[in-house]
Write a structure and sequence with these properties.
Blueprint lengths: L1 H17 L7 H33 L12 H75 L8 H32 L7 E4 H13 L8 E7 L4 E4 L1 H19 L4 E9 L2 E8 L6 H6 L20 H11 L3 E6 L5 E8 L2
Parallel strand pairs: 2-4
Antiparallel strand pairs: 1-3, 4-5, 5-7, 6-7
Length: 342
Amino acid sequence: VVLLSLLTVANVLIFGMQSLPISFLTLPLLLLIAVRLRLLGVTAALLIISVLAIGGSMMGHGPYATAFQGADRAMMAQLLVLFGYLPIMLVAALLEERDRLSDRAKAGQVRAERASAAKSRLLANVAHEIKSPVGGIIGIGELWRAGQLGPVTPTQTEMAEMLVKTARQVEALAHDLLDVARAESGAVKVELRPTDVPGVLDDVRRATALRPEASGIRIDVVCEGDGLVALADSQRLTQVVSNLTSNAVKYGGSGGVVVLRATRIHDGVRIEIIDRGPGLSPEKQTQLFEPFNRLGLERSTVEGHGIGLALAKRLVELQGGTIGVSSTPGEGAVFWVELPSA
């Protein structure tokens, strides 16, 4: 707009100094109107120009004053306006269409943000409503299992253990739902500090090895090179690596070995969680980080809710990193996280 305004003013000065017909200055003026007022403004301006052009031609002014007579002058003036300023109309129409598409995109973004905020509130509310009664169930189950509510038979002890185990799974789901809701709403705060990546991997290895599902699976830590220090939130990075390792044990542990590897890259640190399981097809890899998507394993015996990977992705992004997976069906999978170095 500023450039067009300057162009118009410059043309006026040049035409005035050279004593040229000012009527030929309408082109930059109409371009300015098209940018500012779009199609409606250009249409109104062209209507005025057409009336002036026809009137001037009929009075003997303009390029066709001597070549044509009477109504022919008016016809030629209209043709001059039509073909001379048609590109301006097209420019105005394109600008108006761009505005319409931009407004539609903004409205869609607002609706998506509102829907996301509503989903986050719903997840948080559901998680809060679940936590309180589940905590009570866990307490009662532990008292029952310990015999503090009266004598129990071996069968009742087993039932109490199943009750507590199931309740703890629901409690873990509630915590994951809360984390997802907080991450999506921006409520999760990360404190980026120099973080010793080998230490994080070793902590995760020891914690995961104690879980029942890791029985019979060897978990190795491999650190290649020195200076494996990432700029990250230690607690959140541990949570991410723990989620990825837990998934590798549950879904890829059939290979008997899970490897946690850290390497230096050109501008940061790369963490890889490698398993020798069945691997993933390209189609499943594109859906892997979607919330509540278990990739068709909803009826399998493997426990899970389809939240861990989606949460891991969000937490990695909050730390300024990237996350992904490389896999070939039948050859295992490599989940990787790349973080900037400290």
